[in-house]
Specification:
translation elongation factor activity, elongation factor, Elongation factor P, SH3 type barrels, OB fold (Dihydrolipoamide Acetyltransferase, E2P), five-stranded antiparallel sheet, NA-bd_OB-fold
Length: 188
């Protein structure tokens, strides 16, 4: 299926020169003078090589036909990450390089959308926001203003995030899975 370059998003699978590529990021540039372009960073699925291409925003690219299916995360082992199809209970093992940095945000039972091509998972889409508990953070310094300063914190999954000074260990916070940024305190 052919689509214009500006409509490509992270997680899409593109076909180029007979190879499949997973889109890592897609950014459109609209200069004041000249042609608008779209910069697409991709990873070749067959060997993991990263490629960066620039297209005119109206240029056509080939989007591979993949089947998006809902799975729930079960566990991680030496082979990779194991997911279960909720409809037929079939299990799929996804290598760590397919998930990339998103893997640190996986939680047991989490609903994840996997893109399947020829019975192989080629990309994964996690929920946009996840909740974790802060296990370790520095104490707030007197005189710090909450509006501009953030401090490092270690989360229950082992990941690190920058949080506002009022966040203390034991606080549950919401994190954006795309970039690991703090969103808000959990409301639970």
């Amino acid at each position: 299926m052919r689509v214009i370059a500006s409509s490509v998003r992270k997680g899409n699978i593109l076909e180029k020169d007979g190879q499949l590529y997973a889109v890592l990021s897609a950014e459109s540039f609209h200069p004041g003078k000249g042609t608008p372009t779209t910069q697409i960073d991709m990873r070749r699925i067959s060997d993991g090589v990263k490629v960066s291409d620039r297209y005119k925003t109206t240029e056509q690219v080939e989007r591979a036909h993949v089947e998006d299916m809902n799975f729930s995360f079960l566990y991680q082992d030496a082979d990779g990450f194991t997911f279960m199809n909720e409809e037929n209970f079939e299990q799929v093992v996804v290598p760590a390089d397919v998930l990339g940095t998103q893997a640190q945000y996986l939680q047991e039972g989490m609903k994840v959308q996997l893109s399947i091509f020829n019975e192989t998972a080629v990309s994964a889409t996690l929920p946009q926001r996840v909740t974790f508990e802060v296990v370790e953070t520095e104490p707030a310094m007197k005189g710090q203003t909450a509006s501009s300063s953030y401090k490092p914190a270690k989360l229950s999954n082992g990941a690190r995030a920058m949080v506002p000074p009022h966040i203390q260990p034991g606080t549950r916070i919401v994190i954006q899975t795309e970039d690991g940024s703090y969103v808000e305190r959990a409301k639970d």
